Amino acid sequence: MGISEKLLTDGESVVVDTRTHPKALILPGLVLVVALALAIFLDRKIGNGVVSLVVWVLALVVVVWWVLRPFLDWLTATYTVTTKRLITREGLISRKGHDIPLMRISDVAFDQGIVDRMLGCGTLVISDASTHGSVRLHDIPHVEEVQRKLTDLLSGSSGGSTSSGAAGTSSDRQDDDGT
Questions:
Q1: In Å, how far are 20, 116, 118, 142, 145 from 121, measured between CA atoms?
Q2: Bridge partners of 123?
Q3: Which residues are CB-neighbours of 175 under 8 A, at least 6 positions away?
Q4: What is the pLDDT of residue 161?
Q5: What is the pTM of this model?
Q6: Comparing C-alpha atoms, which of 63, 77, 72, 64 is closest to residue 139?
Q7: Can you tell me whether residue 96 is helix, strand or coil?
Q8: What is the SS3 assignment for 33?
Q9: Is the pLDDT of residue 69 over 70?
Q10: Is the dihedral of CA 132, 138, 144, 148 positive or negative?
Q11: How confident is the model at residue 112 (pLDDT cuts 50, 70, 90)?
């Protein structure tokens, strides 16, 4: 789904490959329904050819700006965790990406509100050793599982020393290893 295998380095493999949770499409979906309903209502009410054309052009502008653009943003934004780095990519025509080597990550945490908990997503907060402080990846599906996998990778690559949250406890790692 996300990153091409040819962009991976030798010995690097994908651990998690995801995009923003589909909840990001709820508001654009509602805008689509309202814009179409309003355009149909006004078209039927007015009945004038020129004014009807203006109504449909305005509806098209609304759909392109508040529905199609967010959908394409959702479709093209990917988050990939490999055995060596965290990779974020977004954009269709103009691409933007950010790679953080795992060895520079100092903390992995997550935030979940009540709606996020019901939908099974949340915000992954990754603190690194740069001057930027932290990276917030919003609406990550199964955020606790992603946080745990990232914590396990950090524990393995840093010799067992990590300052991440409680979701990556040693008993969780033992269960995943089958021991």
A1: 9, 5, 8, 5, 10
A2: 111
A3: none
A4: 42
A5: 0.76
A6: 77
A7: strand
A8: helix
A9: yes
A10: negative
A11: very high
Can you read off the two tokens belonging to residue 155? Answer: 């524990």
Question: In CATH, what class is 5-20+79-177?
Answer: mainly beta
**DSSP for 99-159, written as a single string:** EEEGGGEEEEEEE--HHHHHHTEEEEEEEESSTT-EEEEEEEETHHHHHHHHHHHHHHHTT
Burial of residue 130 (number of CB atoms within 10 Å: 0-12, 13-18, 19+):
exposed
Mean pLDDT of 27-48: 94
Q: pLDDT band at residue 2, thresholds of 50, 70 and 90?
A: low
Query: Residue 22 in contact with residue 140, Cβ under 8 Å?
Result: no
Q: Which residues pair with 126 in a beta bridge?
A: 108, 135
pLDDT exceeds 60 at position 175: no
